[in-house]
Amino acid sequence: MVRGVERRQIFLDDVDYEAYLGRLSCLVPDLGFRCFAWALMPNHVHLVLQTGPVPLARLMARVGTAYAGRFNRRHDRVGHLFQNRYRARRVIDDRDLLGVILYAHLNPLEGGLVGDLTELAEFAWCGHGALMATRQPWPFESPARVLELFGRTPGVARESMLAQMESRPPKAE
After folding, report:
1. Cα–Cα distance measured from residue 103 to residue 18, given in angstroms and rounded to the nearest whole number
2. pLDDT value at position 170?
3. What pLDDT digit, counting tens, does each position of 32-85 carry?
4. Residue 141, beta-bridge partner list
5. pLDDT(93) > 90
6. DSSP string, 64-132
C-alpha cells in the first residue's frame, strides 16, 4: 500500500489512473511479478503482488518515481507525491491471500466510490472487474490464478468470491 503525502490525492482524473496502470502493465510482467488484486483510490493504492526475481522495493521505486515525476509535470507541482515508503506485509498462506484479495477489492465500496458489488464489477480502477469478466484484464493482472483460489471453475469461483464479499462485515470506522 502506498499513500499520498498528507493523505492528499494522487489521482486527479482518468489520465492519472491510466498512467499508473500503464506503469504497472509494463513493470509487473517485466520484473517477473504477478498481481492478484489492486485498487486505486483517490489518495492511496492497494496492490496484492507475488514477488519475482527482483526485490519488491525495486518495483515500487520504479512505479512510484516514474508516476510521481509524470504527475508533478502534468499538474505543475513539485515535491514528494507519496507519503513515506510503501507499506507491505507478507501473505502467509492461501487463506490469508484470499482475505487480502477481498480486502483490496472491497476498498472502493467501503470508501464510498461505488454503491454495491454490481457497481464494483464496473469500477475501472480496481481489479474486481477482470475477475468478474466485466472487462478485459490489464497486462499486469492474473485473474485466472486468483479464480483458481476461489473455485474449480470460473463460474463457481465468481459465486464463491461474491458470497464471501457479501458476508464480510463492514470495515470499522
Report:
1. 22
2. 60
3. 999 999 999 999 999 999 998 999 999 999 999 999 999 999 999 999 999 988
4. 35
5. yes
6. HHHHHHHHHHHTT--S--B-SS-------SHHHHHHHHHHHHHHHHHTTSSSSHHHHHH-TTBTHHHHH
Residue 7 carries which DSSP code?
G
**Does the global pTM surpass 0.85?**
yes
Contact between residue 48 and residue 118 where contact means Cβ atoms under 8 Å apart: no
CA dist 153 and 88 (Å) reads 31
Q: What are 92's three cell numbers?
A: 502467509
* Domain spans in the chain, listed from the N-terminal domain onward: 2-74, 94-167
Beta strands across the sheet bearing 44-50: 2-3, 44-50, 34-40
Closest CA to 35 of 43, 20, 24: 24
**What gap in Å lies between CA 85 and CA 57, rounded to an integer?**
9
- For residue 146, the 8-state DSSP code is H
Q: Is 79 left (phi over 0), alpha (psi -120 to 50) or beta?
A: left
Strand pairing partners for 39? 46, 126
